[in-house]
Design brief:
It is a single chain. This protein is mainly α and 208 residues long. It folds into two domains: 67 residues, Tetracycline Repressor, domain 2 (Orthogonal Bundle), CATH 1.10.357; 132 residues, Tetracycline Repressor, domain 2, CATH 1.10.357. Helix content is 75%, strand content 0%. Keywords: DNA-binding, Transcription, Transcription regulation.
Length: 208
Amino acid sequence: MEKKLAEAVIAGDNAAETRPLRADAQRNRDRLVEVAAAVFAERGIDASLEEIARRAGVGIGTLYRHFPTREHLVEVVYRREVEALCAAAGELAAGHPSDVALEEWMRRFVDYIATKRGLATSLRILLTTNSTLFSDTSGRVSQALRQLVEAAVAAGTIRGDVDASDVLHALGGIYSAPDTPEWRDRSRRLVKLLMDGLRFGAGNPAKA
């Protein structure tokens, strides 16, 4: 059904792709991406495009005009999530002590992972058809984490023997955990446990 609707909407529409969007159309597009991120995080592979359109307050035809296929939408949502997570590193570092910024960023990482898990099936398709998506985003998340970890080490608010790659590896275990109803709450508890370990012996790694 999704494929038929998409074909019906985008037929003859290709020439319009390069035209700037009107303000109302841009608002609809931004709203669709925002809602899609939430629905994919909640429903995973069961998320329907019809539900996304309904929650965004637009018709399914409007969704398909902006995103001809599920994978088009998934790509935009994924890029948005990466951008937001990376931007958060600088924003948190500017407004909080270094260890607090790191902990809050890791909590946001849990939300990012929740959305990514919901996108998993389409991301696997994109991996074989879109060579730029992952090359564009690869390393950006790890670099954001590295900046926060190194700042906290330099400030003495976490252990001095911490390597950002080890922290990222620990966070990666969250992604592979079973997808149960309590997954998000449990993941946030794990972040707190991880931060307790990072703070233990801060300023004197030999105590740890």
